[in-house]
Amino acid sequence: MEACDEVVIYSPTESTYGISNSQLSMFNFPLAIILSLPRFGYTMAEYGYSDCCFNKEFCCITFKYYKIMGTKETKVALVTGANTGIGFQIAKALAENNYVVYIGSRDSAKGEKAALEIGRNARALQLDITDSLSVEAAVAQIQKEQGYLSLLVNNAGISNIGKNGQSMEEILNSQRASKASIKEMKAVWNTNVFSTLAVTQRFLPLLRSADNARIVVVSSALGSMTLNADVTHPYRAHFDVVYGASKAALNAVFLSLAIELEQTNIKVNMVSPGFTATALNNFQGTDTVEEGSREPIRVALSEDLPSGIFTGPGDFSQRQNVIPW
Ligand SMILES: NC(=O)c1ccc[n+]([C@@H]2O[C@H](COP(=O)([O-])OP(=O)(O)OC[C@H]3O[C@@H](n4cnc5c(N)ncnc54)[C@H](OP(=O)(O)O)[C@@H]3O)[C@@H](O)[C@H]2O)c1
Are 130 and 190 a contacting pair, CB within 8 Å? Predict the structure, then answer.
C-alpha cells in the first residue's frame, strides 16, 4: 500500500476511539481526518484498507471494534459542574492524563460543548446534583457503560441565588450573619452541602466497585474555621454565612466521610482552588482559571495522597499545601 497525502478514517458504525498515534503512523499519512465521534468502552481490534484510495489523496480505512469487558485498568472519573470554570480545567487535565472523564453538567448542551472542546476521553453527562432523578440517571449510565468509578470530583457549587450581575462586595454584604436571607442560605447549602453528599452516597457503590477509588471535594479556604478565627488572615472579612459557612459545613461532612471510609478502598480529600476569576464571584477573583485550578488538578491527579487532608494553594496554606480545618 502506498502512502497517501491525506486519509479520511471512515467508521460508520463504531468509532475511532482506541486508535493510537503509533497505529496511525503505521499508515504513513501526514494528515488524518477522523470523522466519527469517540465512543467509550471499545477498542480497535483490526483495521484494513477498503478499496477506495483515490488518487493518493483520500483513503478510507475501516475499523472493527470489540467492547472492552470487565477490565478496570481504565481510570474512570466524574467531575460535577465540569462545563465551565475550575471543573472544566480539572476534567481537561484528567482527560489529558488518560482518564475517561464524564463531564457532569446540569445543562446538557453546555456539557456536550465542553466535552467536544476537551475531545478525546471526555463524555458529557447530564447531572443536576440537586435533582434526584438526574442523579439516578447519571449513576445508571456510568454503571451501564463502565461498571465502576475510580474518581468522583465534587466540584459543582454556587455562591448565591439570583444575584447575577451584582459585585462580590454587594453579594457578601447581603450574606452577613446579621441579615442573610435564610431562604437563600438553605438553597446554597442545599447545593454545596446536602446535594454534594447525596450525590456521593449514590455513587459509593460504583466507587466501591473500582480497585482503588478517590473522592475529591472542591471546597474553599474560606471554609477553614482556623484561618477565619485568625485576626491576621486577609480574607476573613469574606467569611459569610451563605457561602463561606457552607464550605465549613462541607468540610465537616466530608471529614466525617473520610473517617468512616478509612479502612476501605476509597480515599476522601478536600481541596481549595485559588481566588479564581469565575462566574461564582462575578469574575472578580485574582487568579486566572488556569492558575486557580492548579491545586485542585494536582490533588485530582495524585493517587498517593493520604486520605482526609485539606489542601490549597501556597498563599493560604502551610507545609505541603495543607490548610488547617
Ligand atoms: N472561584 C473561586 O475563587 C473559588 C474559590 C474557592 C472555591 N471555589 C469552588 O470551586 C468550585 C467551582 O466553582 P467555579 O469557581 O469554577 O465556579 P463556576 O464557574 O460558577 O462553576 C460552577 C459549576 O458548578 C455548576 N453547578 C452549580 N449548581 C449545580 C447543580 N445544582 N448541579 C450541577 N452543577 C451545578 C455550574 O453549572 P452552570 O454552568 O450550569 O451554572 C458550573 O458548572 C465550587 O465548588 C466553588 O465553591 C471557587
Answer: yes
How many A from CA of 99 to the centre of ligand 1?
Answer: 21
What would the pLDDT profile of 250-309 be if each residue is shown by its tens digit? Answer: 999 999 999 999 999 999 999 999 999 999 999 999 999 999 999 999 999 999 999 999
User: How many whole angstroms from 83 Cα to the centroid of ligand 1?
Assistant: 9
Residue 48 shares a structural domain with residue 193: no
Residues 40-72: tens digit of each pLDDT: 444 443 444 444 444 444 455 544 443 444 457
Looking at the structure, do residues 159 and 209 belong to the same domain, yes or no? yes
- Do 15 and 114 belong together in one domain? no
CA dist., res. 6 & res. 254, Å (int): 52
C-alpha cell at 188: 446554597
Q: Is the same domain home to 39 and 127?
A: no
Distances (CA, A) of 197 to 83, 128, 133, 189: 20, 13, 15, 11
Question: What CATH number is associated with residue 215?
Answer: 3.40.50.720
261: CA distance to ligand 1 center in Å? 26
29, 55, 84, 101, 247 from 189: Cα distances, Å: 54, 63, 21, 27, 9
Regarding whether 81 and 61 lie in a shared domain, the answer is: no
Residue numbers of the domain that contains 53: 7-67
Residue 1 lies in a domain: no
Ligand 1, residues at Cβ distance < 6 Å: 80-81, 83-87, 106-107, 110, 127-130, 155-158, 191, 218, 220, 272-273, 275-276, 278-281, 285, 292
Please identify, by atom number, the ligand 1 atom nearest to the C-alpha of residue 107. 40
C-alpha cell at 159: 455562591
- 49 and 92 both lie in a single domain: no
Q: Determine how many CB atoms are found less than 10 A away from the CB of residue 202.
A: 15
Model confidence at 26, pLDDT cuts 50, 70, 90, reads: low
In the Cβ-directed half-sphere of 110, how many Cα atoms lie within 13 Å? 15
- Considering the domain architecture, whether residues 26 and 150 belong to the same structural domain is answered as no
Residue with cell 449510565: 141
Does residue 54 lie within any of the structural domains?
yes
